[in-house]
Amino acid sequence: MAKVWLGPAGIPQYVVKAKSTLDAVRVVRELGLNAMEVEFVQGVRMSRELAKQVGKAAQDHGVLLSVHAPYFINLCSDEADKVEKSRQRLVDSLDRAYHMGAWVVVVHAAYYGKLGPSGCYEKVREELAKAYREAGEPSGVYIGVEITARKNQFGSVEEAFSLAKELTFVTPVIDWGHLYARNNGTIDYGAVLDLWNREFPGRHMHTHFTSVRYRNGKFVDEHEPVEVGRPPFEPLAKQLAERDMAITLICESPLLDKDALFMKEVLERHGVKLS
Description:
By secondary structure, this protein is α/β, with parallel strands linked by helices. It contains 9 helices and 10 strands. It has an 8-stranded parallel beta sheet with strand order 1-10-7-6-5-4-3-2. Strands 8-9 form a two-stranded antiparallel ribbon.
C-alpha cells in the first residue's frame, strides 16, 4: 500500500477559500489533505521571511510542501540573456524552497529549439548544475524535472530519468496529464510506477494530476476537472493500492482543492489513506 501525500497546486479556493499562501497551509490541513505546491509560476514574489513563515506553518500543520518554478524558463534558448534570466528564476525558486522547507522545485526546463533533443539535454544538465551551485547547493531540495506534454519540449520520461541518474540533486516529476498527452491519449500507470521503483528504489515520487483537453484531434496541455477522466484517476488509485512506495499527488485541475478531495475519496475507496 502506497504512502500518499495529496493536496492542491496553489491556494484552496473552492471548498474553502484561503486568503494567502500562509493561510492556505492551515486550510489544506483542515480539509484533510497533507500536501501543497507553492506556485511561483508567474514569478518568484515571495520574500525569504515569508517563505520561513510558510515553512513554519507547514511544519506545525503537518503539510508537505513543494514549489513550482516560473513558467518563463527556457534553459535552451538561443538567446544568452534568456538563459541567464531563466537560471536566475530557478535559483530564486530554490532559495525560497530551502527557506520554507519545501523538498522539491518543479521546473519545465526547456524547449529543444535549435539545439535539438541531444544538444538540449547537455545544455539542461549544464544549466541545472549551475543553478544548484548558485543557489548554494540547498540541502534537502531537489530540482524536479517535469514530464512535459509537448514533443518540442524537453521532458520525456527517458530524459528526466536519465538526468536524475546523472545528477544527484535532480528528480523526475511525473505529470500524469502531460504524459497522457505526450503519448497521444494512452497511459500505463503500473509501468511508470514499476520503472520508478526499479530506477529510484525507496525515493519519494512527486507527481501532478489533472485531466487534459482533447482539441483539434489531439490531447493538449489544457487542464480539465479530474472527473472528465482523461486520463482517468481511478486506475492510478488501484495501482497505488498494490505498491509499497511514497508518492505525492498534486492536484492541478481547475478545481484544485475540490478535485483533491475527490481524488482522496477515490483513493480511500481502494483502501489507500493519506499518510
